[in-house]
Amino acid sequence: MDDEDPALVRAVVEKTYGYPKALQFVVGILANDGFVSLEVLLQNTELFQKDVLEKFIHEAQFRLDSDARHVMQALAIYGSHICEEAILFLLELYARGFDVSTVLRRLTRRHYITVMQKRGEIMMHQLDRDANYRQIPTNGTSTYNVKVLESRAADYYAQLRTPPETWRSATELVPRLKEIDHRIMASDYNAAAHTLLEIDPRILSWGAYRQVMDYHERLIDKITDMMLKLGSIVNLGTAYQNQTQHQKSIVCYSQH
Fold first, then answer.
1. Contact (CB, 8 A) for 198 and 228
2. Who contacts 67 (Cβ-Cβ below 8 Å, separation ≥6)?
C-alpha cells in the first residue's frame, strides 16, 4: 500500500483496528487484483465488520501449533510490554518439550507479535490478546488453566520485589501492583490484600488515594481473612477521608 493515498491507508488501519493479519489480507487483495483499489475496498462495508475481523483472528489461531498457542496464551495472561523472561517463567512447567525463545521468534516473523528490540519488550494486539485469553481452559481440575497461569504470573512479579526502603518513586511499585492484579484474576483475594496492605503506607504517602480506593473496593467483599479485611477497611476509610468522601469514610470506620 506504499503508493496509496495516506488518508485511505489510515482509514484501512482504523477499520481493521490495526490488526496485522487483516492488513495483510487487504494487501493480498490489492496484489492479486489490479482492478481493485483501496478506495473501492473501503466501500465494501461487509469486509470490515467486526465478525470478519474475528474470522481473521480465528484463521490465524487455527494455523498455530500447540507450542505457539501456549506462548500466545502466556502473552495474553501478561498483556503487552512484557519481556521474554516472563514468558519463560510462566511456561516453565509446561514448555519442557519445546524452545520458547524459538517459538517467540517464529511468531515475530509471522507478525503475530511485535518485539521492541531496544526495550526488550514483546507486544500483542489487543484483539489477539482477547482471543487467546478466551482459549485458555477454565477447568479447575486441569493443571493448565486461567487461575493457575494468573497465579504463576503473580509469582513472577513477586520475585521482582524490592524492599520499600529502597523505593524512590511510584514506578518502583509497578511489580507489586501487577502482582496484585494477577492475584485478583486468580481469585486469590487474601494474597492480593496482603500484598496491598504491605505497600499501602507508601502509596498513601505519595498521595495515590484513588489507586488505593480502587484496589480495596475490588477486594473488600471478597477477603475471607478477618484481619486482612479489617486492614482493608481501615485503609479504604483513610483513602476516602483524604478524597473528602467523608460519609464513605465514616461507614468504613464504623466497621472498625
1. no
2. 95, 97, 98, 103
- pTM score: 0.81
Domain that holds residue 26: 6-56
d(CA 31, CA 164): 57
Q: φ, ψ for residue 214 (rounded to 5)?
A: -60, -45
Give the distance, in angstroms, between the CA of residue 182 and the centroid of all CA atoms in the same chain: 9
| Measured distance CA(225)–CA(253) in Å, rounded | 18
Q: How many domains does the chain have?
A: 3
Distances (CA, A) of 146 to 122, 133, 168, 246: 21, 8, 34, 39
CATH number, domain with residue 113 = 1.10.10
Render pLDDT for 240-250 as a digit per residue (tens, 0 to 9): 888 888 788 87
Q: What are phi and psi of 126, to 5 degrees?
A: -60, -35
HEC per residue, 187-230: CCHHHHHHHHHHHHHHHHHCCCHHHHHHHHHHHCCCCCCHHHHH
Calpha distance 146→79 (Å, rounded): 14
CB neighbourhood size of 27 (10 A): 13
pLDDT tens per residue across span 95-106? 777 788 899 999
Residues 190 and 241 in one domain: yes
Same domain membership, residue 70 and residue 52: no
Closest of 246, 176, 183 to residue 211, by C-alpha: 176
The residues, ordered by sequence, that sit 6+ positions from 185 with a Cβ below 8 Å of its Cβ are 146, 147, 150
202, 229: one domain: yes
